[in-house]
Amino acid sequence: MKLSLKLRLTLLFLALSLAAWFAASLVAWQQTTDKLDKLFDTQQMLFAKRLLTMDLDEIRAPERMREVPKKAKHGHLDDDALAFAIYAADGTMILNDGENGRDIPYHYRRDGFDDGRLQDDNDEWRFLWLTSPDGKYRVVVGQEWEYRQDMALDVVSSQLTPWLVALPVMLLLLIVLLSRELKPLKKLAQTLRSRSPDATDALPTQGVPAEVRPLLDSLNHLFARTQEMMIRERRFTSDAAHELRSPLAALKVQTDVAQLSQDDPQAQEKALAQLHAGIDRASRLVDQLLTLSRLDSLDSLDGVEQIAMADLLQSAVMDIYPPAQQAGIDVRLHINAPEVTRTGQQLLLSLLVRNLLDNATRYSPRGSVVDVTLNTRSFTVRDNGPGISPDALARLGERFYRPPGQNATGSGLGLSIVKRIAALHGMRVSLGNAPEGGFEVKVSW
User: Fold this and answer.
1) pLDDT for position 75
2) How many CB atoms lie within 10 A of CB 155?
3) What does the pLDDT look like over 123-157, one tens digit per residue?
């Protein structure tokens, strides 16, 4: 199970704090032991030199070993702090501190620091040996290594223990602060949990941490796109229901007429022919509705390529030429810029040109000429018909709008499809009556 963000941050903080505390302890231990070693070595050296300043001959006058009398103990004393002994050149101890100093074994060695042990003791000691200037006496000052280590441990503990004690308090404060800082996220989660499935209003961003702001902006952008998609889908459903109602009603009427005309073969044949034409119109309407719906859902194009516009127009003209000839319409292609290319989807651009040619041949009277002309920055599709009135021209291109007085069947979606494909390809579509007569559609880039 995935741990919560608050718990993970708390555990990470605890692990990092303990690791930092442990690393600080090691560094503090190393530095403290080094400093204390220098301090105590210096202390031993000064004490030994001070002993050498004494009149050792007077101390040795009675040929017997003396001990420094013990003083009454007041306060905290440690007999391992320092121990000393003074030897004659022959190794006879003539003076000691009365405690550990009498157990320091005599070994002839050069002056300086050395490690060793007391007699009948396994603890490590650090000794300093010095010889008097006249060479008659040797002074040794010792200190137990454990004393130094305990002192270093006390110093380090006094420095780091408060931080270790403060760690639980810091963890508690961290949990409180995390709960406070993550409260907007918890509120956001509750808002999303109680949000209606069809809600598209933007989420509030006040009080949200800066790190979470991009997530909220992305969600709000997603909701806006979802709202646009829902509006398109609702509009498509409404338009489809409205436009399909009439063709389906006509199909039902023609079916009833065909059933009632069983005794009249001629009337029945006419009804069946109209039924067939109605099915074609309904099929064409459904295809155009589905095409327009798919185009509306596109925000960008995939699988684009460089397309030679001359080849594209030539292919479209060849496809429309047979039905145009049957309708008594001549389609002519004029290529003024054969090298022009555009980046786009071959299928969609072909659909754009086919819709323009289909509209031109469908709504032009018999004997008309449709001219398709390619220029450097545009191509045009123009017929030599009567043109369109200014009122109808202002609404041309609206979905399901067909100018009045049209005899040819249609759904009023062809130019809507053309405009949507052009917009996806960064093209502009302009509609108008040609100066020399007829209706002209210009697609420019």
Assistant:
1) 46
2) 17
3) 899 999 999 988 889 999 999 999 999 888 888 88
Domains of the chain with CATH codes: 5-155 (3.30.450), 230-296 (1.10.287.130), 305-444 (3.30.565.10)
Q: What is the DSSP string of 169-229?
A: HHHHHHHHHHHHHTHHHHHHHHHHHT--TT--PPPP-TT--TTTHHHHHHHHHHHHHHHHH
Crossing angle of helices 5-52 and 145-181, in 10° steps, is 160
Per-residue CA distances from 39 to 46, 47, 97, 113 (Å):
11, 12, 21, 14
Instruction: Write down the pLDDT at residue 126.
Output: 93
The stretches in the chain having pLDDT less than 50 are 64, 72, 74-76
72-108 pLDDT per residue, tens? 454 445 555 789 999 998 888 999 988 888 899 998 7
Place of tokens 């429309």: 320
Alpha carbon dihedral 387, 393, 396, 400, in 10-degree steps, equals -90
Show the CA angle centred on residue 350, arms to residues 372 and 364, nearest 5°. 45
Nearest to 403 by CA among 371, 353, 363: 363
d(CA 333, CA 325): 15
Q: Tell me, what amino acid is at 97?
A: D
Structure tokens belonging to residue 74 = 């007041």
